[in-house]
Design a protein that fits this description.
- By secondary structure, the protein is mainly alpha-helical.
- The chain is 49% helix and 6% strand.
- The structure holds s-citryldethia Coenzyme A.
- S-citryldethia Coenzyme A (SDX) binds at residues 235, 238, 269-271, 273, 297, 305-313, 362, 364, 367-369.
């Protein structure tokens, strides 16, 4: 970032001395006002619940232009990466290293990730403690957190090589753990990874093969899954990434930090929206019920939201939603499900919402979660596991952002302040006076 000539001057109507603050320019996107000296100079904090106007860090990984509906991974448009930029591991390499790999670099990266896909044999015992019907996200929070116990003593996060190995281990092992969570939920044996399959083909194999018969990989479905992973890989300082950064800012074990990110992603306002969006479509049931549902959404007292719609940053169409809808179409066609009633319902709902003043005036458009449930369901992934797939994909974004934070000379432990509105100091009364 560059320190621009312009400065921000804050003056106060109560006669407090004004303060000048530097303004920094990024390579693209909004400038920032450096307020770090504000409290020291004025005894005042800024107030920004939900961080609507706050940049928590500088980053060079992912850029979103919410007004234009643009998403760039290290400067490359998501459309190009998802449609002709190679596979998910190429995007992983890009997010981690800042540049797309050449053929030799890619092969080395793929080989390294492939060689880390197995988890310690004792990891299986962590699953045994869960109910079979436990939500997969609770299982993933637990098992990814448990990974920290296998890689703690030998891990120095201040060693760049250790950070790189942790990143590779997490990217490589998440598919194995997600597939294990699925197999555990259906009472089937865990399937070990295979080193002769691509990353996404291996995940489909671990999910859907069983020891009793050969499993045939469907390359069209594998490509669709791979694209879904690319679309979910990173998204600047979203809630779960900010959680990973905050946890990591204390120097915590990176596996534990990713477990914290998984916990945050689970929420229906964030990654849990894909599961909620599909349940919403199933609840609406038919096109005839859309009008009534939309009325419920507009009624603030109903608490009903159009899941998969709206976004803190995108005030235009989420570019990932467009690509997800295309993927939906391809997968349903491949499976002969082009008349899938839920897909038709989703497209009808989208059309109606995008013509309705309530959504238009609030700039509410479909986000990445609106269509992802339909395509994942067509791939055979159970609804409860949709957010687990999101976590699988976002792991590379989380670890890339964690690595960037740890090596940022500006980074300090995150410790926000507050506007205190509770009771001023008072004395403890005796029990008979309470
Ligand atoms: C993800 O941050 C990221 O980058 C996240 C993500 C990523 O890749 O990491 O993109 C992934 O989390 C996508 C978002 C998935 N969530 C959903 O689809 C859940 C439904 N969406 C909403 O809950 C909401 O849109 C949020 C949480 C996504 C954004 O909320 P904001 O920015 O805090 O906006 P808001 O809640 O203040 O909404 C502004 C207005 C409000 O109405 P008014 O008070 O102005 O009358 O829009 C309304 C809201 O009630 N609104 C909705 C709505 N979303 C916002 N009304 C109905 N349905 C919705 N989905």
């Amino acid at each position: 970032m560059t320190n621009s000539e312009t400065k921000a001057t804050l003056s106060f109507s109560d006669g407090s001395p004004s303060i000048e603050m530097p303004i920094y320019k990024g390579s693209i996107g909004p400038d920032v006002i450096d307020i770090r000296k504000l409290y020291g100079a004025t005894g005042k904090f800024t107030y920004d619940p939900g961080f609507m106007s706050t940049a928590a860090c500088n980053s060079s990984i992912t850029y979103i232009d919410g007004d234009k509906g643009e998403l760039l991974y290290r400067g490359y448009p998501i459309e190009q990466l998802a449609q002709n930029g190679g596979d998910f591991l190429e995007s992983c390499y890009l997010l981690l290293n800042g540049e797309l790999p050449n053929a030799e670099q890619k092969q080395k990266f793929v080989d390294t990730v492939t060689k880390h896909t197995m988890v310690h044999e004792q990891m299986q015992f962590f699953f045994r403690g869960f109910r079979r019907d436990a939500h997969p996200m609770s299982v993933l929070v637990g098992t990814v957190g448990a990974l920290a116990s296998f890689y703690h003593d030998s891990l120095d996060i201040n060693d760049a090589h250790h950070r790189e190995v942790s990143a590779i281990r997490l990217i490589a092992k998440m598919p194995t753990l997600v597939a294990m969570a699925y197999k555990y939920s259906i009472g089937q044996p865990f399937v070990y990874p295979r080193n002769d399959l691509s990353y996404s083909a291996n995940f489909m194999y671990m999910m859907f093969s069983n020891p009793c018969e050969p499993y045939k990989v469907n390359e069209v479905l594998v490509r669709a899954l791979d694209r879904i992973l690319i679309l979910h890989a990173d998204h600047e300082q979203n809630a779960s990434t900010s959680t990973v950064r905050l946890a990591g800012s204390s120097g915590a074990n990176p596996f534990a930090c990713i477990a914290a990110g998984i916990a945050c992603l689970w929420g229906p306002a964030h990654g849990g929206a894909n599961e909620a969006a599909l349940s919403m479509l199933e609840e609406i049931g038919s096109v005839d019920n859309i009008a009534h549902f939309i009325e419920q959404v507009k009624d603030k007292n109903s608490g009903v939201k159009l899941m998969g719609f709206g976004h803190r940053v995108y005030k235009n169409y989420d570019p990932r939603a467009k690509l997800m809808r295309e993927t939906c179409y391809e997968v349903l066609n491949e499976l002969g499900l082009q008349d899938d009633p839920l897909f038709k319902l989703a497209m009808a709902l989208e059309k109606i919402a995008l013509e309705d003043e309530y959504f238009v005036s609030r700039k509410l458009y479909p986000n990445v979660d609106f269509y992802s449930g339909i395509v994942q369901r067509a791939l055979g992934i159970p609804t409860a596991l949709f957010t687990g797939i999101f976590a699988l994909a976002r792991t590379v974004g989380w670890v890339a952002q964690w690595k960037e934070m740890i090596s940022d000379p500006e980074q300090k432990i995150g410790r926000p302040r507050q506007l205190f509105v509770g009771s001023p100091q008072r004395d403890v009364p005796d029990m008979d006076k309470r």
